[in-house]
């Protein structure tokens, strides 16, 4: 009868564990829902102010057209419109983009604000010389400087100088492929003249920033007080410094290493450098270019993202993934104490202990929306450990046993916090933790006669005699 009762208890505990898995899954769904609401808040801020910024330019362009009469007189005169682009021989960008957080409801959205200075030099503008492909008459508009942005609402001020002369800035780029941005007419300039321009931009954006290296030689140096950047795009910085005060990074790209110049001349649209949240990747890979070229985007960009390593929803989601393991370990601890103390614990008591462990994750999620993650974790741990220590004293029949049980639970929560903060070594630490726990259980139960346990229980002493 004792063996049968033991097996029934194990079956019931399996059902209890399954029920707790359902509760954990429901809390995980709640985390996903809150993440979706945060993304909706980010989209709302982007729609109301400015989203991620991608910058292209400066470059010099002119709109041209060719008109010709077909050989067949019955056909109507034909016209071809096209855009010529002269890309800089050298582009040097220096900028500071410090964090400027926005808040919508209870959600905090990472943003930035700062200035960019772009110095561009052209040895010649011969690339703007038109050619007639059909033997017709070609006419072109005046040359203009173009700087394109993915979201021009983020522009606070812009100044373009040719030497010491300030150019007149007009909204729009005059290019349908880059509808957002600005332009400045260039008058009195010959195609074989060199050109040097300085563009100063004050802008704001959200979370992500990218720049297209559309020059024969591009050098970009960016600084920020954001201490957790994720460098992405198609090129990583050649040098970078990241510490608690922020980061500083330098990129250098040659025309031999990028297709950006070809893509700009082909009229491809600006890329996107926003994070791929579903894949938990900093930046999405460029989409496959259609064979007809329609809808194609520039594939190369230098980019960084303002990643929050202690995002409450990401951290809560990671914690829940360890939830089942820690509940099982807690049940093993209760069973071990039950066995060594000789006091029976009812499956309902196992259920209540498991629910207390499970609700820890709900407390952690709700608190982390209002407090720092470390503070939230400490408060949720204190609540769970205090409750389990109080309940364990009655469940196990002694305050000392309750305190010992509370110490075991505190050790598990401490190990979980270490796992959450050691991204690279989480697997190693987790494996060592499980091995250590298994070794401790095997050591404490090495004197138990498992064959006799179901008939009355017998623990062997150091000489192998029953006690």
Strand content: 25-35%
The rough form would be described as elongated
Main sheet makeup: 9 strands, mixed
Helix content: 25-40%
Query: Based on the structure given, which CATH architecture of the largest domain is correct?
Result: Sandwich
CATH first level of the largest domain? Mainly Beta
Order of helices and strands: HEEEEEEEEEEEEEEEEEEHEHHHHHHH
Number of beta strands: 19
Query: Low-confidence parts, pLDDT < 50 over ≥5 residues?
Result: 276-294, 457-467
Total domain units: 2
Q: What is the CATH topology assignment of the largest domain?
A: Immunoglobulin-like
Number of helical regions: 9
> Which class do the helix and strand fractions yield?
alpha+beta
Mean pLDDT: 82
**Measured on Cα atoms, how large is the radius of gyration?**
33 Å
Distance between the termini: 22 Å
InterPro entries: Uncharacterised_IM_CreD
Keywords: Membrane, Transmembrane, Transmembrane helix
Organism: Roseateles aquatilis
GO cellular component, one term: plasma membrane
């Amino acid at each position: 009868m004792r063996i049968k009762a033991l097996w029934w208890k194990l079956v019931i505990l399996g059902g209890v564990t399954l029920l707790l898995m359902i509760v954990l899954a429901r809390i995980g769904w709640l985390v996903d829902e809150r993440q979706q609401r945060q993304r909706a808040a980010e989209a709302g801020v982007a729609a109301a102010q400015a989203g991620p910024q991608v910058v292209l330019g400066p470059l010099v362009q002119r709109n041209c057209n060719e008109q010709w009469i077909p050989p067949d007189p019955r056909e109507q005169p034909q016209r071809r419109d096209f855009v010529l682009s002269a890309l800089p021989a050298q582009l040097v960008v220096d900028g500071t983009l410090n964090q400027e957080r926005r808040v919508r409801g209870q959600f905090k959205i990472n943003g930035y604000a700062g200035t960019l200075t772009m110095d561009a030099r052209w040895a010649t503008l011969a690339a703007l010389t038109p050619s007639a492909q059909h033997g017709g008459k070609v006419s072109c508009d005046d040359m203009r400087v173009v700087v394109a942005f993915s979201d021009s609402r983020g522009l606070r001020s812009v100044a373009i100088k040719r030497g010491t002369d300030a150019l007149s800035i007009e909204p729009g780029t005059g290019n349908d492929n880059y509808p957002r941005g600005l332009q400045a007419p260039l008058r009195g300039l010959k195609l074989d003249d060199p050109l040097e321009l300085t563009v100063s931009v004050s802008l704001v954006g959200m979370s992500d920033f990218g720049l297209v290296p559309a020059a024969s030689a591009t050098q970009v140096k960016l600084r920020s007080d954001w201490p957790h950047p994720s460098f992405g795009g198609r090129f990583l910085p050649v040098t970078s410094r990241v510490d608690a005060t922020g980061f500083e990074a330098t990129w250098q790209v040659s025309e031999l290493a990028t297709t950006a110049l070809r893509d700009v001349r082909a009229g491809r649209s600006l890329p996107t450098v926003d994070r791929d949240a579903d894949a938990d990747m900093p930046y999405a890979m460029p989409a496959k270019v259609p064979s007809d070229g329609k809808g194609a985007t520039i594939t190369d960009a230098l980019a960084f993202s303002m990643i929050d390593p202690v995002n409450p929803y990401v951290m809560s989601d990671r914690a829940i993934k360890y939830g089942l393991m820690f509940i099982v370990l807690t049940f093993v601890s209760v069973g071990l104490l039950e066995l060594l103390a000789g006091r029976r614990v009812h499956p309902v008591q196992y259920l209540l202990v498991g629910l207390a462990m499970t609700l820890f994750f709900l407390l952690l999620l709700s608190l982390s929306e209002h407090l720092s993650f470390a503070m939230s974790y400490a408060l949720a741990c204190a609540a769970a450990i205090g409750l389990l220590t109080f309940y364990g004293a009655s469940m196990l029949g002694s305050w000392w046993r309750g305190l010992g049980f509370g110490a075991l639970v505190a050790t598990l929560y401490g190990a979980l916090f270490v796992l959450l903060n050691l991204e690279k070594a989480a697997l190693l630490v987790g494996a060592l933790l499980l091995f250590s726990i298994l070794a401790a259980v095997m050591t404490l139960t090495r004197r138990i006669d498992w064959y006799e346990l179901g008939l009355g229980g017998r623990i062997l002493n150091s000489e192998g005699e029953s006690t």
